[in-house]
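Protein modeling request. Please complete all fields; requests missing the sequence field cannot be processed.
Requester role: graduate student
Desired output: 3D structure, token encoding
Chains: 1
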Amino acid sequence: MNQKIAKVFSLFGPFLGLIFVYLIFVFVAPATSNFLSLYSTKTILTQTVVIAIGAFGMTLVIISGGIDLSVGSMVALGTVVTAVILRRFGQPQPGLEMETAGVWLPLLAALAAVAACAFCGFLSGAMISLFRIVPFIVTLGMMQIVRGAALGISEQSTVSTPPNWLTGLMKVEPTAGAWYSMAPGVWIMLFLLGLMFTVLRYTVFGRRVFAIGSNEATARLCGIRVNTNRVWIYTLCGALTGVASVMSYGNLSVGDPTGAMGMELDIIAAVVIGGGSLSGGEGSIVGSLVGALIIAILRSGCVAVGIPNFIQNIVIGAIIIVAVGVDRLKHSRAA
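Delivered output (335 residues):
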């Protein structure tokens, strides 16, 4: 009976936590904050996009028993790559008025950002697999390398860009009240949610990710190419982080090499709060989205109530510790 209760709590715990956190601010937030308004809800969903998309990739890494501390730096690099391409090729000819960057150039810039981040993920996965270095150390070093690359490419300053449609990806319409008027970035997030859920749940690759994280030695005995799959896992994590960087650029409208400082912690926190185990073998895409929503609601609710930023960080840190503690307790009882 206890095992059944534990299984139900494991499945629905993040959802219950989301409802609990939301209800707290429903009753605590002042009426003047409009916390319950549709515009506020759309804003919270938009604020979730970057963390959630990054968490989708991190979910794969954590399920496989790894970690990636470089994702925050990759988000910064992606914004810089996007902005540099747009500024370099999107400027009008001398003597002409400022023009938009067109349709194809922003798309190519976004693809370049995704490719750059995917390459960084590939390098991390390759070094972990080939040299058998602990993922924490490799990605800690990669975090510094990628941040340095972002600063170098941008010449240590923010990169402004000509007007382009990427800046509208994270735009929330305050007057449009219909549910379908959400920011385009939210729809991209939901599309990636369905795609990654399908990959993890219904593909051979998804089953291999769980197998590697549950028991790497057994996975090798079963014929799974652990090193090859690990490289793919980190590469896919980098690609998804690249998509998150494009969303971040859409929010900032500039390339910022110093941006996304500490974002890797929020992304890891979203996965852990959503039920991912740092021991590997457990986690879900939907749970990671719920974790990202909890973080977004906490930050938005704290602003509505007037709670300082440092209190927000303390609360989120405490939630991470509790989530990891519950996971450890669950595993110790199972053993």
